[in-house]
Amino acid sequence: MSALLEAKAFSKVGEVRSVKVGTRVRAGAAGAEGGSGGGTVGRWRRWRWVGGGEEGSGSWWRYVLTALYLVAIQYYTRIGGKVSVILIKYENNQGEQSSADSLIYKVFGLYFMQSYIGLFYHASLYRDILTLRKVLIQRLVVSQVLENLIENSIPYLKYSYKKYSAVQPIEECKKPLSFCSKKRERESPSGKSVRLSTRVEKEYLKPSYTASIGEELEDGLFDDFLELALQFGMIMMFACAFPLIFCFAALNNATEIRADALKLLVMLKRPVPRAAATIGAWLNIFQFLIVMAICTNCLLLVCLYDEEGKWRIEPGLAAILIMEHALLLVKFGFSHFVPEEPAWVRANRVRYVAQAQTVCSQQLLRSISKLDRKWE
């Protein structure tokens, strides 16, 4: 519901800007006549302030509202993710991998609806490409800035609080022994005060690399994959409206690499590496987003082409439909004919397996020969 309200507000801004000249004329005529014209002038001034108008006073206000909306939606959707974690426990899944895939699909479905419902509202109903472009910029810029701040600030605040809570009892215990502690500090060869916690203790106080929807999920890559999937869907499904959005995403990803390195190396406990053959259910999600991107971009072209809404099968519309089917055919063709692993990877794998078997057989022969010598 909040996404629909936001979409209506942005679409209203686009409508007012498109009829700005006519509204001014009607407002002036109504002001000259008096009486019922005051309401039109008041509405025009109010919508012009929200949209920025000529003064541009509402431009920063739109970013503030977008930030508040994204923060609220993030926490509300996180609650839905925690509910999904609880529901997974009551499902009859075949194993841990099946449970993890089911959880990924449920949580991504929630985030998909909350993240893209306003954008689809602009693209399909209002067909305002300029407002859709502004919403895309605001969503991408504000959401990425907020996510970077939240990802890096919350672990640091948790670590600072745990460190302060752990150091306070030590300080209280050392108060009666102030003379001994001062003597120890004077006798230290470096001349510096003795630190209250070692590196191991600091590592213990750092928060774990876990998912935001549940502390029991020790794999913190869940949030990173979810963030990448949502960003990928935004820049792919609405590339026709604003092609330069890829530049913003590339700049954000370059910053995100350093931010994640700081988070993993300094602010969080070192995660335990685990071997994995594929990315699992996330591969199916990315393939789904590719198909959705083809359909939504063709839909945007149709909406731009058919401005009157008559939906006649004309040569331009037929060309767009043919292009959509051709792109889908190319996508599924590449998925079917291109192998999942290159030929050189398969050859190296076979060679390594053969070498391992040779080494094992040689060791077995040596052990058998040693046993024969002992019995002799």
TrEMBL record:
Residues 59-351 form the Anoctamin transmembrane domain. InterPro entries: Anoctamin, Anoctamin_TM. GO terms for molecular function: chloride channel activity. Pfam families: Anoctamin. Keywords: Membrane, Transmembrane, Transmembrane helix. One of its GO terms (cellular component) is membrane. It is found in: Membrane. It comes from the Eukaryota. It is a multi-pass membrane protein. This is Anoctamin transmembrane domain-containing protein. It comes from Aegilops tauschii.
